[in-house]
Design brief:
single chain; alpha/beta; 5 helices; 6 strands
Length: about 140
């Protein structure tokens, strides 16, 4: 079929976000868009526990988190398990470039987040996205 919908590599997502409203919006919006949100947590400790036990296709993490550790620590834990990371934060960090696939700058709309996930999905398939959504920076390691 000429206009067949392509298969997503990203299906199961862990959301790591310390801002309750952003976490809720992301969880609700991604579920509505057909993704399975495995868990939504607000700390490195909780994220590390989910990463250790649950099959995941992507970790969506803020850098600033509650408690000990931050989004970079989450990315290290995800990387150790072979799970790609999309940072969602007000300021993308240099350190994040070596830990994640991309960074989406806050604030963003759900439509922009969905397009960012589509671009990351294409990158994971080895197909560079033609156009990046506003606020998304793909890293060279992607």
């Amino acid at each position: 079929m000429l206009f067949a919908k392509r298969e997503r590599l990203i299906r199961r997502i862990l959301i790591v976000e310390d801002e309750a409203l952003v976490a809720f919006d992301n969880e609700h919006g991604l579920t509505e868009a057909g993704y399975e949100v495995v868990a939504t947590v607000d700390s490195y400790a909780d994220a590390a526990a989910v990463i250790a036990r649950a099959p995941l296709d992507l970790v969506l993490t803020n850098i600033a988190l509650n408690g000990e550790g931050d989004g970079h620590d989450v990315a290290r834990a995800a990387r150790a398990r072979g799970v790609p990371v999309l940072f969602v934060t007000a300021r993308c960090s240099e350190e994040g470039r070596s830990l994640g696939l991309a960074c989406l700058a806050k604030p963003y709309s759900m439509a922009v987040l969905e397009r960012a996930l589509g671009a990351v999905d294409l990158a994971l398939q080895g197909r560079p996205p033609r156009r990046l959504p506003r606020g998304l920076t793909m890293f060279e390691t992607a």
